[in-house]
Amino acid sequence: MTQINKVVAVVPAAGVGSRMQADRPKQYLTLHGKTILEHTLAALISHPVIHQVVIALDPADPYFDQLPVASASWLQRVDGGRERADSVLAAVAGLPADCWALVHDAARPCLEHADIDRLLEVTGRSDVAGGILATPVRDTMKRAHRQSPDAQVLHTECRDNLWHALTPQLFNAGQLTAALKTGLAQGRNITDEASAMEFEGHGVALIDANPANIKITRPADLPLAAFYLAQQAAETP
Hints:
This protein is of the alpha/beta class. The chain has six helices and eleven strands. The strands form three sheets. Strands 5-4-1-6-10-7-11 form a seven-stranded mixed beta sheet, with helices on both faces. A two-stranded antiparallel ribbon has the order 2-3.
């Protein structure tokens, strides 16, 4: 693997996950005896290149301190914000400007080290400022008239060259901090770290990833994530 500067994992975890219809934020639901968040943190810190994780939490979060991992020496906690971009900025702004920030969703517990390895390879490229894990769109894509339960099709979108953006997303911490600050100040629609970098004209690599790296957003995602985690455990020596 290309020699790289320090890599710090960043986990925005200040959201409430209302679509899960649960009594707590989705990252605190359990799979195989551990919370989703614990699985996610374990997947990150167990990678040989990652020795520090910064997690952005709701200042009023009543659950995190109850987890055994809360006192881990490799974990730093910061106060998150209202939007994802606010939380990521709070985390990366305190990092050394020359390190690499590997930003990963709290609700993606099925991340595999092989995907992290492929993503880290972008640090040796001169044509891009960083990269993201992603998967090519394979289904037919429909544009709706509006977003509602009874929406109707407006037209079919061409799926050529369309990708589903996943995480982690990897960028230089200094550049990402600057891009997030500018984007937020200008009121841009920053849906992920790559979008902030794109607005600033930075090149972003798409790294084809394992589709098992799902984001848990709805109740039906829980048994699928549990299956993938069990499969990973069975394959681990």
